[in-house]
Amino acid sequence: MDKDVAGLQVLRDGTWYNVPPMSNHTLLINVGVTMEIMTNGVFKGPIHRVVTNSEKDRISVALFYGLDPEKEFGPIAEMLTENQPTR
If we measure between CA atoms, which residue out of 19, 29, 34, 22 comes closest to residue 66? Predict the structure, then answer.
């Protein structure tokens, strides 16, 4: 993430919010919906986007890692109760 140019936005309650630029050597990890599934909805996967800046260049590197698409996964057992069954 470039320290001088913002670009990341998150959606909350119908409004897009800018995420402030970070300092050099910042690693931002977005676990997405994987954490939402594993926690049975306790943690919500962030809806996010990256926007361009017409006045300044920005350098960002996006890397993706995915789970094996052939394997099924779900909530961890400790997150399930009678009041909070599997969603």
Answer: 34
